């Protein structure tokens, strides 16, 4: 008689098989076939703005594969691999040295001797870095000591917005090294204040006390490109296709940055009147971006730029939708509540707040969440897709390390507003709120 553990493994294998086939079908629908690991060009689907079906298939595939490996591999093997993973450091080296940019000029591959000379790095150390990355399909050693780009390594090029996130994140692990220290420190352990983050704890040990948002022009540009890259990484642009923007007349993009998402909205929905709102420096950058990428919207008067501080002021009055993408997760509960209260002051009876962030869904059912029709993984997978949903939990730790803030559960979001609809975008979640009706 087959025991339950063996049955669970067989079901996981079925999930892996079916989700992989679903992913293959999504690629084939484009007419360009399924990508290869060694491809030196991006697949058309890689930069598409609506890959929700693919992302849902990959969420299942990654979750089931990880769970299967965790069951079958010796536990010490799995834990060791969890802890001793320096891929992030190797990716940072490749990005800072612009390895992918150089290899892009040599599609057949380039000797590490020549490559090391061009980037002024020791060739013996550089080859060790590249071989770690090549284990995971990022670069390929086409013959001994000769490396070429792959579809994954193209993301590390200096022209890639997603690659900017590698640069931004390369500083964060050193904050994580102090995480336990902050959890037992008398001043930091119980604090949820912005100035008690592991980042500031780490910097203060070095005699540095610098606010994250105090950026020079170069850092601000890197950050804004990184935010555009985060949209690609998370598949956040799915909100352009799966929220009913055609029923919306006006939208305020709160903390808009350069307006990466709202520019796309303006181009897709020419009836929509958009207000970009952020601190003056970001609003100034936004105007430049709009002049380049959506000049018709400026010419037709469909967009306005209104600087403001969302802690001290309310946004423009009476918009249909107040859109916050990757904003509230930057702030602890007190500051997040202040932002939402300032928005609530100017909402009309039919106004909505659309919070677009990662959302944490736990392996056990949360009260009230089931009614929101959240997608749940099939048994025997973890309810929240396990490692298939790890990006949300990784972002939660990133927010903690950098800002002493967090990603939230559905029950933690909204600060007194009422949830009306949840859009599961397989990486991020867009949650629509309204003012409670008496």
What report would you give on this structure?
- This protein has helices at residues 4-28, 52-72, 75-83, 87-96, 99-103, 112-119, 123-135, 161-169, 173-176, 179-184, 198-205, 217-234, 239-242, 260-268, 280-293, 295-299, 333-344, 390-403; strands at 110-111, 140-143, 146-148, 250-254, 273-277, 303-305, 321-325, 352-357, 418-424, 429-434.
- The chain is globular, with a radius of gyration of 23 Å.
- The chain has 18 helices and ten strands.
- The model has no long low-confidence stretch (mean pLDDT 93).
Strands, helices and their partners?
Blueprint: H1 4-28, H2 52-72, H3 75-83, H4 87-96, H5 99-103, E1 110-111, H6 112-119, H7 123-135, E2 140-143, E3 146-148, H8 161-169, H9 173-176, H10 179-184, H11 198-205, H12 217-234, H13 239-242, E4 250-254, H14 260-268, E5 273-277, H15 280-293, H16 295-299, E6 303-305, E7 321-325, H17 333-344, E8 352-357, H18 390-403, E9 418-424, E10 429-434
Parallel strand pairs: 4-5, 4-7, 5-6, 7-8
Antiparallel strand pairs: 1-3, 2-3, 8-10, 9-10
């Amino acid at each position: 008689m087959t025991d339950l553990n063996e049955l669970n493994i067989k079901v996981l294998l079925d999930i892996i098989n079916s989700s992989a086939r679903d992913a293959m079908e999504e690629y084939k629908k484009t007419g360009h076939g399924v990508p290869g690991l060694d491809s030196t060009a991006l697949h058309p689907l890689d930069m598409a703005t609506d890959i929700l079906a693919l992302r849902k298939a990959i969420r299942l595939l990654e979750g089931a594969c990880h769970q299967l490996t965790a069951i079958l591999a010796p536990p010490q093997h799995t834990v060791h691999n969890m802890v001793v993973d320096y891929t992030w450091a190797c990716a940072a080296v490749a990005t800072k040295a612009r390895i992918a940019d150089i290899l892009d000029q040599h599609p057949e591959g380039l000797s590490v001797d020549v490559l090391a000379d061009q980037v002024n790095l020791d060739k013996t150390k550089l080859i060790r870095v590249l071989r770690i990355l090549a284990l995971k399909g990022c670069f390929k050693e086409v013959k001994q000591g000769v490396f070429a780009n792959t579809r994954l390594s193209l993301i590390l090029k200096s022209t890639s917005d997603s690659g900017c996130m590698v640069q931004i994140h390369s500083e964060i692990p050193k904050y994580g090294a102090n995480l336990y220290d902050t959890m037992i420190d008398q001043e930091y352990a119980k604090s949820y204040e912005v100035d008690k983050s592991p980042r500031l704890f780490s910097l203060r040990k070095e005699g540095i006390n610098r606010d994250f948002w105090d950026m020079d022009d170069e850092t601000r540009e890197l950050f804004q490109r990184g935010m555009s890259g985060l949209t690609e990484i998370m598949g956040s642009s799915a909100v352009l296709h799966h929220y009913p923007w055609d029923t919306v007349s006006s939208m305020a993009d709160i903390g808009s940055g350069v307006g990466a998402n709202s520019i796309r909205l303006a181009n897709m929905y020419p009836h929509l009147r958009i207000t970009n709102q952020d601190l003056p420096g970001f609003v100034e950058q936004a105007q430049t971006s709009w002049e380049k990428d959506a000049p018709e919207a400026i010419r037709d008067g469909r967009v306005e730029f209104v600087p403001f501080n969302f802690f001290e002021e309310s946004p423009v009055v009476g918009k249909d939708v107040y859109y916050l993408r990757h904003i509230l997760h930057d702030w602890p509960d007190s500051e997040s509540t202040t932002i939402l209260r300032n928005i609530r002051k100017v909402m009309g009876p039919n106004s909505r707040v659309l919070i677009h962030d990662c959302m944490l869904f736990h392996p056990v059912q949360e009260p009230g969440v089931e009614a929101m029709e959240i997608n749940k993984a099939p048994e025997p997978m973890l309810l929240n897709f396990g490692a298939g949903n790890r990006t949300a939990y990784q972002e939660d730790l990133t927010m903690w390390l950098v800002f002493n803030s967090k990603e939230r559960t559905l029950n933690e979001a909204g600060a007194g507003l009422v949830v009306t609809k949840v859009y599961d975008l397989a990486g991020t979640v867009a949650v629509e709120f309204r003012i409670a009706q008496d």
